[in-house]
Amino acid sequence: MDDAYINIRTSDPSEIEKESFAIISSELEHMQVLINGDIPVESAGERNKITQVIKRCIHTTADFDYAKTMYFTDGAVGVLEGLIRGGAVIVTDTNMALAGINKRELAKYGCSAKCYMSDEDVVREAAARNMTRAAVSMERAMKSYGDVIFVIGNAPTALIALREHYDSGDYVPSFVIGVPVGFVNVTASKELIMGTDIPCIVNTGRKGGSNVAAAVMNAVLYGMR
Amino acid sequence: MDDAYINIRTSDPSEIEKESFAIISSELEHMQVLINGDIPVESAGERNKITQVIKRCIHTTADFDYAKTMYFTDGAVGVLEGLIRGGAVIVTDTNMALAGINKRELAKYGCSAKCYMSDEDVVREAAARNMTRAAVSMERAMKSYGDVIFVIGNAPTALIALREHYDSGDYVPSFVIGVPVGFVNVTASKELIMGTDIPCIVNTGRKGGSNVAAAVMNAVLYGMR
Active-site residue A30, yes or no? Predict the structure, then answer.
């Protein structure tokens, strides 16, 4: 079954979403993909939360590879929920990821989301210091707020900057969603974050993207409703 | 080779992009994927343009399936270039796709990009008429402008609305980029557009997304530089 055609006249996206998730669940069973077989999971509750994140990434991409490649630190989703309840600031590395995150859900917890990539002074500083705008954006976020949830769907240099500041001992991110996509430095930059004790959700390998970054954030937000 | 690690200090994204496209080209050759084997192509120039669009979709997703599933009507990229040169209006079905399209390139041709999904009167009208916001957005676009390039990365109902108006004889879209992602109505909605004489670029099957929609638009814009 490649496509379910339920009712073209429906004006209820939640009905379509429910049907979509049923298809995803059914096909994952059919593929006998054991989600999170080797992921450290504290409890059945956390395992269920992880599964919801992975399913939303598949929902966003129609790509079942995400069932095999996503990495969660122990209790990651619970940590993220706690940060959201505490009103953490979300900082993205693309305006696309920013556009994709559900602001109405964020507002329930007093959270806000920011992206500095188009800020003129970030552009200027990046040129002056021979850095990427993404790396400068990360530094801006580190300086500006307490708890920051870094949502990275594009720039390996964002993850690399976070690791460098972690290594130098001057900053430990509260949480990193690390899902850049691409062919150069991408896999390595994800491994740099996974090689720390920073709480994180990462999609290992090449795949990811701004849409996936937003999907991870939204999956956690929807799980809190 | 899963990941090329060229220089984490580079601040030149164009260097990384060039390397990424070289990797994509090399792997496509290695996979012996014959891009566009069965696509009607007028000329070598058009074939080259199609290849650039497909490669940018792979660049955006790290998913080589796009080499096998994308569909282009005859001369599609040339038609799109002509519309852009003529200052057509781009209308998207998500704010994410809108965020991802390169506005600086669009501005060179006097083009603008719009998304009506969050407009209050669209939300109101959709509820009143029991339609999706995406379908109402399409009608809004049809009424408001001359040449519209419809860039659809999410909502099957957007493509279905375009087909219904086409069938009723009251509107023929100048161009449709039809790459919704998902499991319900998605494949069918794409086939509805492919079953007309509307110039289009479609990714057949389930895959696509707002990021892919923006990538198709940007690939064409970058090819015009």
Answer: no
